[in-house]
Amino acid sequence: MPRGGLRPAAALVSISLLSGCGVFSSDESDEEQKITVGTMSAPSTLDPAAAWDSSWELYRNVFQTLLSFPSGAAEPEPDAAESCKFADATNKVFTCELREDLKFSDGHDLDAKAVKYTFDRMRRIDVKGGPTGLLGSLDSVETKGDRTVTFRLKKPDATFPFVLSTPAMSIVDPREYPADKLREGTTIAGSGPYALESYKAGERAELVKNTHYKGAADRKNDAVTIRYFKKSATMVEALKNKQIDVTFRGLAAEDIVEMQANKHAREGIQLVEGSGTEIRYLVFNPDDPWARKKPVRQAFAQVIDRPAIAHKIYQDTVEPLYSMVPQGLTGHGTGFFDDYGDPSVAKAANILKGAGINEPVPLTLWYTTDRYGSATEGEFKEIKRQLEDSGLFKITLKGRPWTEFDAGTKKREYPVFGRGWFPDFPDAENFIAPFIGTKNVLNTPYPSREITDEVLPRSRREADRGAVADDFERAQKLLVDDARLLPMWQGKQYIMASEEIAGGERALDPSAIMMMWELQRKTSW
Asked: Which H helix or E strand runs over 59?
């Protein structure tokens, strides 16, 4: 396993909004141990072969991966596997030994052949914009007996154990998931801590304990209902009315600030706050006649006022970000601030004038209306205001619900568009590699031979991830020079929960995915 100086990406602390202490009971009824969680991140698909998005929140709880991040861990540890290690000194052969007698929730055996089937299937289907991009270093998967799986890599890759820990690598049942196409329907056959009892798209998922589960999770409740909301205010109101027990992804800044400042609003509610590695950024499409021009992108970058967005729109619940690698990870930098400094209309005008552009640049900016929280629209209105107040741009704003928005990115329809990134794993590579190359998660080809052919391969040979800072500083210098990706802000993490609920501090893994099994109900105060 790689060793390095990674800091946990989801270090949470509870803001003391309550007094007293909880007494926990292990003999409550099933009904008492059911937890209801609210979130604004509904899955886009139930098939892991298709999703490279926050569908992973559900997968983490109903599927199993060979490795995973237990609560508080910064490095992957065995889950469906009993042990895993590089079998050579070059980081090109990685072998896992499975736990004994693993089964899927439907009772079918989970063996080495099922693991190989999962990886071969994902690569065969190769969904556009899907998670196959994470497996760029994988050459082949081999099995020996029922429990041994060996991954042979095309080139050294010390991050491969991190990749195996992502919910994209969820092991599926070969009897239930077709080899050459995505599975349809609203059921899941996984081997995770929970089984999916029922699912209604965009509304709710009902999880119950998987009686066949063998893995690292210590389940502290018996069942979880996940409710999907479209507005933060509606979700928080449901919490106040005791219709849900916990709120997570999508909390709006105004709801967080009110909870921090208003004693009456937080009565009976606890707020858990911590650092996070969620980022927001803008993408410029090279197919667009204006966005493809480097001086346009540079002038855009020179005008943007990140602190104003963080303060006015998010009320300082986020922090301005000047590199694609967030604070808290080896390789974080401030390249966009170093090159562009404070916002300057005069400097931006000179950039455009030097390129022979003397009229306001027309650009259409796109955002998703329901994926990242209700403040997204306000953020883009503020971006439009900043750009148009400069007199250098003429901006049109357009928004779509996530499903339609995501389909549009796959068709490369948008000149400039906003995206969010929740890391697949806590390493600087995961904030650079997914966005670079002819095939990337953004579906906007971004060839950069120095990054893909030199910087990343060199960093992947280094098992000590704390020793690759120079490589990532170089990669970020190239990104700043191109200004094809424009980092905007880095989020903090917030969970609101009823005073009856414990475990919020432990419920988020380093990729900010909620491990529902850590939540439990208190019996008294």
From this structure: helix 56-62
